[in-house]
Amino acid sequence: MKRTCVIIAAVMLVCVSAFALKTGVFRSLEHISSCENLLIIQVPKSYHGVPPSYETDEPTLAYTVQVVKDLRGEHPVGEKVAVSVMQKLMPGSQYLLAGKPATRGGKTWLLFHWELGVIEIPSTFNLATLEGKDIPTQITALLSARRNEIKRQMNDLGREEESIGRIIPKEAPNKPDAGDGK
Fold it and tell me: What percentage of residues in the chain have a pLDDT greater than 90?
């Protein structure tokens, strides 16, 4: 019995590891830093993503965005680039994109299909603070700013929930109806 459990656990571990690799999970700061493309982009205020012009099995959206900063220095500021992402980008927002180029449908796209491959940059973050710093330090600053923004939003939502709770009682968990025979 023990041996069977160990074998099942090993098979599950291999399957989970293979799935994690397929979905593209950054495992470390060095892993993110090694991406071919590390761009800070601005989504135009009046632009929403559209399905990409190439065939894909992935739920992706295509955007034409403007480069605000390229951590590697390969794309000039102001250049418009075609990107493919697996999440909705908010018009007017800035993002750190970490990924790689690929040709799809005869066009070169910058693909950002990794978990943490698209990080929203808080509007209060001053990009000038990144100047003169190495790539891992820049990424750390951007991730820290995002984490702080997430904490701020969670606090705001907690206060809102408390306010609602003072007006209406918390909902009771769903219980099966006594008359349904279950």
Answer: 28
- Give the residue among 120, 52, 39 at the shortest CA–CA distance from 78: 39
In tens, the pLDDT along 126-162 reads 999 999 999 999 989 998 999 999 999 999 999 999 9
Give the pTM: 0.68
3-class SS letters over the chain: CHHHHHHHHHHHHHHHHHHHHHHCECCCHHHHHCCCEEEEEECCCCCCCECCCCCCCCCCEEEEEEEEEECCCCCCCCCEEEEEECCCCCCCCEEEEEEEEEEECCEEEEEECCECCEEEECCCCCHHHHCCCCHHHHHHHHHHHHHHHHHHHHHHHHHHHHHHHHHCCCCCCCCCCHHHCC
Residue 35, token pair as written in the block: 């991406």
Select from 71, 42, 79, 43 the least CA-distant residue to 130.
71
The answer to whether 84 touches 52, Cβ cutoff 8 Å, is yes
